[in-house]
Write a structure and sequence with these properties.
The chain folds into 2 domains: 104 residues, Orthogonal Bundle (Helix Hairpins), CATH 1.10.287.40; 302 residues, Bira Bifunctional Protein, Domain 2 (BirA Bifunctional Protein, domain 2), CATH 3.30.930.10. It has an 8-stranded mixed beta sheet with strand order 1-11-12-13-16-10-9-4. The radius of gyration is 27 Å and the shape is elongated. It is built from 13 helices and 19 strands. Helix 3 packs antiparallel against helix 4 and helix 5 crosses helix 12. The chain is an alpha+beta fold. Helix content is 42%, strand content 22%. It binds one RNA strand through helix 3 and helix 4.
Length: 424
RNA sequence: GGUGAGAUGGGUGAGUGGCUGAAACCAACAGUUUGCUAAACUGUCGUACGGGUAACUGUACCGGGGGUUCGAAUCCCCCUCUCACCGCCA
């Protein structure tokens, strides 16, 4: 969430930022937050004074008792009841205002970075740059779901029997390709300086709030009600929450982590060609990269992550483009996001395979992820993450773009990981 | 799942009602000494929210929540977690 002090100090630019994100009633809710905070401070002042008085009397009683002046102590005791009653009232009121403030702050999304383009929908995202070559396909080029069937790589119907739609079963070279990609991505990340971690796939509510999936996207996560845990929709949650309630040293930043995980998404409300084949699944594999950095350095970190993902896609020889998301399309918690799309030649459409974001201090403020500067001051960190990469759409594009009459050609970089050059 | 023991600052760990926001030690940081390293010595060393230009100062926090009391790390209740043993088990 936003830092209350920043809202007060930069009221107008905050409102402008929220409007760019198409957040309704921006001015109204910011007013409400500022007023609630003023009230909160007044109540706290009054309560602190009240408690200080109580503490003083309690100390006097202790001293009197020690001197054996019981009668005087009794007189002092009688004084306290008025303070206590009023104090209780104030404490309740303070808790109420703090709660109100917290709930208001939770509703407010992150402020977009200045470089985020104006716009409402995905149409308004700006293409930063693109790379790779879009292959020319023959008319009979098959979409990946047909290729998966022809070469017996993925069984969608079997997944339906075992679980339901969106839970495919990978088989043979399909399964091996998947495992190869995971290892390839993890090795690449490690070579780029990311520490590999293997996180839990279920997280508690605190973690969900920490990174902002709760309460905003509650309906998108599978909730294990018996134990009140959530299946992770991305490794971002467990990995970023490593830094919840942590104070790092400035010299230890940036922290760079990578993790493979299965990801689970309910995807309620999706339908049509978007969900065909591997395009949108309830369970899929992803390798994530996460960074925690200083505010001063976080945008350089973001650039490094974008550059890293770009190189990674390049090694797979897939045509791609990088989008700078517009105000209306950027996520609730993000300040600046670059989406990566690869071109899937038989479907003739761009598929999102990565999203790289700087959350600035928005997550860190919820997480209480801070660092001690070399001068000894404590500041909020900036958190960043990106997919590197999400597997299913990569597989879709690999299958479609590399199909030949002889079979599907595996890109060079992957051959050592797969152990085969062709799917035929 | 059962039984028992625990949960205190970066770490170890003292503390059973007022002198404890918290001993001591270790680590860390700064300094003195030193040809260098080491050692020794001195000092600093939790977080949050308030007030104050500042020096400074108020309040809260000893796993979480509630209670008793003028006063709680300390007593009571509930919860969570950790450890040990048993049971079950990849």
């Amino acid at each position: 969430m936003l830092i209350i002090k920043n809202i007060i100090d930069n009221r107008d630019s905050v409102i402008r930022g929220l409007l760019k994100k198409h957040f309704h009633n921006a001015e109204q809710i910011i007013e409400q937050i500022i007023n609630t905070d003023i009230e909160r401070r007044n109540i706290q002042k009054e309560l602190d004074t009240n408690l200080a008085a109580q503490n003083k009397i309690a100390k006097q009683i202790g001293a009197l008792m020690a001197q054996g002046k019981r009668d005087e102590a009794e007189v002092a005791k009688a004084q306290t009841s008025q303070y206590k009653e009023h104090g209780k009232l104030l404490a309740d009121k303070l808790a109420e205002y703090e709660n109100n403030l917290k709930e208001l702050l939770w509703q407010v999304p992150n402020i977009p970075h200045d470089s985020v383009p104006e716009g409402r929908t995905a149409e308004d995202n700006r293409v930063e740059r693109s790379g790779g070559e879009i292959p020319t396909m023959t008319e009979d080029a098959l979409p990946h779901w047909d290729l998966a069937k022809r070469y017996d790589l993925i069984d969608f119907e079997l997944g339906v029997k075992i679980t339901g739609a969106g839970f495919p079963v990978y088989k043979g070279k399909g399964a091996r390709l998947q495992r190869a990609l995971i290892n390839f991505f993890l090795d690449e990340a490690r070579n780029a300086g990311y520490l590999e971690v293997e996180p839990p796939y279920l997280v508690n509510a605190d973690s969900g709030y920490g990174t902002g999936q709760l309460p905003d996207k509650e309906g998108q996560m599978y909730h294990v009600t018996a134990d009140d845990l959530y299946l992770i929709p991305t490794a971002e949650i467990p990995v970023t929450n490593i830094f919840r309630d942590v104070i790092l040293q400035e010299k230890d930043l940036p922290q760079c982590l990578t993790a493979y995980s299965a990801c689970f998404r309910r995807e309620a409300g999706s339908y049509g060609k978007d969900v065909r084949g591997l395009n949108r699944l309830h369970q899929f594999n992803k390798v994530e990269i996460v960074r925690v950095d200083t505010p001063k350095h976080s945008y350089q970190s973001l650039d490094e992550m974008v550059f890293y993902v770009e190189k990674l896609i390049g090694k797979l020889q897939l045509p791609y483009r990088i989008l700078r998301l517009c105000g209306g399309d950027i996520s609730f918690t993000s300040s600046l996001t670059f989406d990566f799309e690869v071109y899937s030649a038989a479907q003739k459409r761009w598929l999102e395979v990565s999203s790289v974001s700087n959350f600035e201090s928005y997550q860190a403020n919820r997480l209480k992820c801070r660092y001690k500067t070399t001068e000894g001051k404590i500041e909020l960190c900036h958190t960043l993450n990106g997919s590197a990469l999400a597997l299913p759409r990569i597989i879709a594009a690999l299958l479609e773009n590399n199909q030949t009459p002889q079979g599907i050609k595996i890109p060079k970089a992957l051959v050592p990981y797969c152990g085969f050059e062709w799917i035929d």
